[in-house]
Input
Amino acid sequence: MNDNDQLAHRLALLDGVEFSATDLAAIVAEVEDLQRVAAELEEFAQATPWISQQIQPAGKKVGS
Amino acid sequence: MTATNILELNLTDLSWLIAGRQISSSEMVQAALARLDSLEGKLNAFITVLREQATAAAQQADDEIGRGNYRGPLHGVPVTIKDMFETAGVRTTGGSKILADWIPTNDADLVDKLRAAGAIIIGKTNLDEFGHGGTSTLSHFGSVHNPWDVERIAGGSSGGSAAAVAAGIGPLSYGTETGSSVRRPASYCGIVGFKPTFGIISRHGSFRGAWSQDHVGLFTRSVKDIPLGLDSVAGYDPRDPASVHQEKAAYTAGLDGNVKGVKVGVLRRFLESVNPAVKNAFEAALKVLAQAGCEIVDIDIPELRYAAMTSMMTSSAESAGINRRWFRERHQDYVPHVSRGIAAGMTITASEYLTVQRARHRIREAVRGAYEKVALIVSPTTSRVAPLLAEGLKGNGDDTRHASYDHSNMLRFPSMLGLPGCSLPIGINPEGMPMGMQLIGAWFADQTVLNAALAYQNDTDWHARRPALVQA
Output
């Protein structure tokens, strides 16, 4: 997927909300920045365990 | 005692005087409301003032105390709360046009606890919309101004709370922090700001900015007052998924200012981007801590270079999830900058969010390792003093989008990891603006943080300085 397609794919996630040209330009700049940051963090996070966010049991075990 | 003098009282002294009936709650509440009236035109720190309710509640508190039914240190004390907390029968806006007229039917847990403690809520403070910002200029209700210089920002997002306490409008305020929204405005306004370990204070009934980073925090003018305000509102609440089981809070009883042998770590590389006056004040503050008995050591946590960007990505994605429905239906009603931020957050994919959490885990493990060597990490709270309002959003001092030794990483990592942190005043710069230092402890080392902050305060008088705006 080329850069333009990637951007179009991301902007499709805005649920059809329409912005003015000025707002859209600002959002595109922000999204491009987020893409760069995401790539940088992916590199940084390599070899780190995937974290687990299991729902905790309700309440507290008596005597624990 | 004159009305001006009683507004100078810190919470500890005021509680004592109210309990002993040397000052009435009514007298104190009226003085705070009069101060609010005289300064609000300059500060814009409040969205809603609870004049009638506060007056009636103060009278009730006086009656109860007169009958010997004293509830504790907050009884009869005027307090303010950020307009992020739901108040039954009183509008709760989150600083947003979307909820400009919303009147909840229930109190937030914090409000419940304050009412039970007999505190008098006199007003709900201004903020960046739903906590999305670091300036308190992104509010539907206009910008908050800094009491030290009304041409400058108060910091955000809890700017109204910080400005109110700095201006003597009550000795205590409660705010929230997702990135740095308690510590930053506390530093900019020359007061004490504390956020406890994640899960110590329930967030039930307050708006979420980013659920995995949101905390409730406190503002006071003295470190001694923080535990009084904390003891009354801490505790397990099953309605908040982040709430932790804990013993009955007794931070006041544990406050002794003893820091003999406490190891304090300094991350020198992150000082490079700090303004020289702030850096000098920080170096002087380190000497005070050393004289009080701390052992100051240099440490390095290179992973923290990624802290600000990890925090920003996390909060962007989570706030998009939280605001998704309103965004679809009413995006034009958000403050434009906030709306654009939510839009960008909506484009973050699930796999990216999870990758960011992986990065967060790596940073957490590195920080956990550091806390095996030191008890506290300290740094300047902000790299410079409160910027001018005219500098706009770029003036909040954040440069968070690059892996670097930028100081913004210092500001962001405590909330991202849920660590207890306290900002307190350490000087006044040549322009007359306050500077702050933050003390960050390991998870649940809240008492250590408070004791070190008290040790510093005991040997300095920066916390006693007041803005010219309120000097008699």
Observations:
- Helices of chain A lie at 3-11, 21-45.
- Residues 3-45 of chain A form one domain.
- The interface with chain B takes residues 10-11, 13-15, 17, 19, 23, 26-27, 30-31, 33-34, 36-38, 40-42, 44-45, 48-51, 60 of chain A (CB under 8 Å).
